Amino acid sequence: MKSTELVAFGFCYPTPWAATYLEQMIAEETNSEVKRHMHRFIEEVGSLSMGAWEELHTETLDLDPKFVPYVGHVAWGENYRRGAFMADLNAAMRETQVDLGGELPDHIEPVLRYLAATDSPLDDLVEVLPAVIAEMNDVLKKADPNSPYCHLLAATLACAGNRPVKIGGRR
Predict the structure, then answer these.
(1) What pTM was estimated for this model as a whole?
(2) Confidence band (pLDDT; 50, 70, 90) for 170?
(3) CA distance 126 to 60
(4) How many CA atoms lie within 13 A of 84 on its CB side?
(5) Dihedral (CA of 53, 56, 62, 63) sign
(6) What is the pLDDT confidence band of residue 171, given thresholds at 50, 70 and 90?
(7) What span, in angstroms and rounded, lies between the C-alpha atoms of 57 and 81?
(8) Percent of the chain scored above 70 by pLDDT?
(9) pLDDT exceeding 90 applies to what percent of the chain?
(10) Which residue among 30, 35, 68, 109 is least crowded, i.e. fewest CB within 10 A of its CB?
């Protein structure tokens, strides 16, 4: 199992068995930084009732998200470059048989599953992902510094590599 697969599962909508499954996946994780952040994430969400975890997930990622969980949107905003990126990503995901699960192709969860499924991801994705994840993390820390999802984004950043990268001419 790749670290990105573990972290991607953290972004999925919570289910009654999710915490147990995440704990099993964390036990097998070899990246110590990812493991540390994922332990903290599961400790915090695992202490919540299922309803509270579902509500936290929805308010953090869905209805009026505390951070935008779309890689292309963070990198390029709403312009043609994001559209081209999503088209390329959609084709690459189809080729690697990554199910979007009802999300847009640039949503963080299917992006991470795509990274777990391929050894040669799209260059555009590799180029922007570390800076995009860092930006998502910064936005969430400002909006809700005590959110368990800060730990999940830190684990995501540990998977993506923590190197500064220019984002679509905006940085």
Answers:
(1) 0.89
(2) very low
(3) 25
(4) 7
(5) positive
(6) very low
(7) 29
(8) 93
(9) 81
(10) 30
Cα 101 to chain centroid, rounded: 14
* CA distances for 85 relative to 25, 73, 78, 89, 164, angstroms: 30, 10, 11, 6, 20
DSSP tag of 79: S
pLDDT of 67-88, one tens digit each? 899 999 999 998 999 999 999 9
Tell me the C-alpha distance between 16 and 12, whole Å: 12
Token pair belonging to 87? 């088209």
- Hey, CA dihedral for 36, 153, 101, 44, is it positive or negative? positive
**N residues, the chain:** 171
66, 67, 69, 70: CA torsion to nearest 10: 130
Alpha-carbon torsion angle 76, 77, 78, 83, nearest 10: 30
Predicted pLDDT at 160:
77
Residue of 120, 136, 134 whose CA lies nearest to 163:
134
Tokens 């997930």, residue? 57
